[in-house]
Task: structure prediction
Amino acid sequence: MRFGFVKVAAATPSLRVADVAYNAEKIAEAIGEADKAGVQLLVFPELSISGYTCGDLFGQQSLLDGCAEALRALAERTAGIGMLVFVGVPVRLGGALYNCAAALNGGKVIAFVPKTYLPNYAEFYERRNFRPYTGENTSVGFYGAQVPFGNKFVFAEGQTPDFTVAAELCEDLWAAIPPSSFHAQAGANIIVNLSASDETAGKAEYRRLLVRAQSAKCVCGYVYADAGEGESTTDMVFSGHDIIAENGEIVKESALFQTGLTVSEIDAEKLAGERRRINTFGDGQLPAGYAAVPFAAYREDGALTRAVPKLPFLPQAGGLRERAERILSIQCAGLKKRLAHTGAKRAVLGISGGLDSALALLVTVRAFDLLGKDRADICAVTMPCFGTTDKTYQNSLRLMRALGVSVRTVDIAGTVRSHFKDIGHDEGVRNAAYENAQARMRTMVLMDIANDADGLVVGTGDLSELALGWATYNGDHMSMYGVNASVPKTLVKYLVAYEAERLGGDAEAVLQDILHTEISPELLPPEAGKIAQKTEELVGPYELHDFFLYHAVRCGTAPKKVLFLAETAFAGVYDAATVKKWLVRFYRRFFSQQFKRSCLPDGVKVGSVGLSPRGDWRMPSDACVQGWLKELE
Result:
């Protein structure tokens, strides 16, 4: 597929214990089904050709010969299709029997990977029939060919640099140091696990936890194929719990006690980029003795089936309330420390009746409550001017009163007009000077009130505004501590909504009204009493810009891929031309406005993206954007 996506599948076909012909037929059918689905990497369960629960039948020559012949036929089935297939099979070598993953590609068996850790406790007795393999890579004869044999292989797709794969088997994942830890450091971006994990109460949750954790630790994709229907139920039951994970997140998983394919995509390009970003990855001694095994599984076609979240800064599978509480606590802890350290007696905030200042005030109230300080020492200031509507002005007052903070109104219109006279500006010319004089005057008022009251100015600007440079330099751009500095606009909305529900009463009522108010700096006069200056009409929808910000900055994604992902995520919401228009605008503003981010005040980091020049983001203020825009032409 394009853009570094690899279509993968875990397969649990129906099975009959020791019926090699039947099992091979079902595996072949699954290979055909996967081929039609455009799968490039297909994984079957442990000992899938024979069945995991054969017991002492693994000592029977007939079973072993049948498995070898079936494997040869299955390998031939992969000729002419772009797919790397892993099947489970017993393999004889040097007088011992090994539980192996056989890698099939291009009509051949290209490698055998033996299991490292064999469980011999509780219901498992693998050492009775198999031997663990801890030696170096070697080879084994298979129908006249010498096939690589060992557990230090990285399989590399010839046309896709980041499509690199390694294999481990079942118990290997349960070990203290799984082989996949070494595989990942040796360059494998995707780990496959051929497993036969029996089902007991609570085990599915633990299995899921292991897969997620290992994919996170190894910064890899993880494809886990589990044995299922047809295995012997003499003492155990197998549920066919197939899991596809990527860097700590479950991309897709099967229902328990079902057979079939579990198909999705892994973003191998993103994983490779993440490893480059995390400069401790591979800092330890790199594992020795690894060999590359080439394969061909390039496919240009195929649609992306995995979900692309529209709001990547928000939790995707529940837990929003818990995440909101955590973020608010982080913001609060940062401000609490700054207030205590500076000895400031008061906090001073400008309250506009909009989302950002509402969130900053909510955080400040929390900090004062934790410090045991009187909320009356929070000096909340509303500063109406030319663009202020009655709705936002009244909401400012309502919010301050509902939260029990000190209320102050400073009408700055007269002062701004005096300033226009000083600099010779015609008030009828509504240019940048007309707008920004108001924003800078508000900041001056807040700073001087703070000096007069032995206070600290709490900033209200958010991460999305910083990314776009949608802030007046030395106006709302400046404060003494920015509590929203790493909170994107889409997240601001959810945090305010959470606090509204938590607080209830008058506070909830006014916060709900603020949530349903147009986002605006209110620097141009209202039209018929309503907001005339609508931010998202000027710079674009924040849900798009936050999406661009996450993928471009957090993931380092190239513009063409950002465009593809955005078109996928917002299909039916925005057409392709609209998405592209605002993406171009995003890159232009992000590059041209870096100078504003180079001198930001301190502000707490709450998530995985920050633009502080002292923390996450160090970028020249005069970097050129042309290379990024050229991709979008």
User: Anything to note?
Assistant: The chain has a mean pLDDT of 95. The chain has two domains: 5-295, 320-630. The first strand starts at residue 5 and ends at 12.
